[in-house]
Amino acid sequence: MSTRDSQVDKHLEALFGGLDTAPDFDARLMARLRAESHTDVAERAIRTRQQERLRYRKAQLELQSWRGSMLRLLTLDTLGIAFFLVVAIVTAWPHLNRDVPDLSRQYVAYIGTLLGVLVAVVPLVGTWLERTRGPVSLR
Amino acid sequence: MLTDARLMEFVRAQRHDEAIALLLPAFRRKVFGLAYSFLRNREAAEDVTQDVFIKVWRALPGFDGRASLSTWIYTIARNASLSALRARRPQSSLSDPEVMDAVDAIDTAAPAESTVERAALLRLVDQLPTKQRQVIMLFYMEEQSHEEVATMLAMPVGTVKTLLHRARARLSAAAGN
Fold this sequence. Notes:
The structure holds 2 protein chains of 2 kinds. By secondary structure, chain A is mainly alpha-helical. Chain A has 2 helices and no strands. Chain A has one domain (19-131). Chain A is rod-shaped and about 130 Å long. Chain B folds into 2 domains: 4-87, Orthogonal Bundle (Rna Polymerase Sigma Factor, Chain: A); 97-175, Arc Repressor Mutant, subunit A, CATH 1.10.10. The A-B interface holds A 1-2, 6-22, 25-26, 28-30, 32-33, 36-37 and B 17, 20-21, 24, 28-29, 32-33, 36, 46, 49-50, 53-54, 57-58, 103, 106-111, 113, 117-118, 121-122, 125, 136-137, 139-143, 146, 161, 164-165, 168, 171-172, 175, 177.
């Protein structure tokens, strides 16, 4: 079906057989590749610098966020302790004048337990609130 | 000789420039021919061929050898040619004077044909349906096999044979052979 023996075949071979690129094609291509290679290196350096800058900003934001959460925890702790002290004083005050030693003996277990629970729970609640706030995002 | 395995050695060793130097002699004319069969303009085909090798060079780190090397390169070449074809307006034809000059310039080694005969044949090829014209050009360009032309154009071998047969019959009839 496709043997190359006719006159048309010969003409076609003569027409398209020598079809090729210009002689300087390879040299031009290699020059372009070298240029691309240099551009590539420069682009990579810029990209790396940008990534480093982003990483630094992210780390800074995380640090600020950590400081903030610590402050919030301390504030919550302080509030909890203050609340406990107010409750304790208000509860204890009417009996205080009558018999302070008896009272302290009567409530010391409750007071100790409450203080322990508050000290344990407040940081946990603070941490949970911090986690549910979502990740730090860069603008 | 270039084999996919040998190329993969260079790719794995990150020696992409050497890989391209290996690819060029094996694929330059084929890619150029493929681009030329789409664009019918020598300069545009050369530009596309350059772009194809740049794309191949860039994509080499990701070449995993799952597809055959030739299939991969021809796919890039076809896509680049089609993009260039879409971008080019108005489209030139094989029988344009500039194309004739280009063919004369590249065909010095071929047997002497008068410019008139050459122009007439080019005009006939130009009038063929696109697929037939592409098959004719690629088949006669570098003594390509049917299989190679089929891979280049992403067609079944049977289709290439049929297209080639029809194109030759049409050209023979038109040329009065």
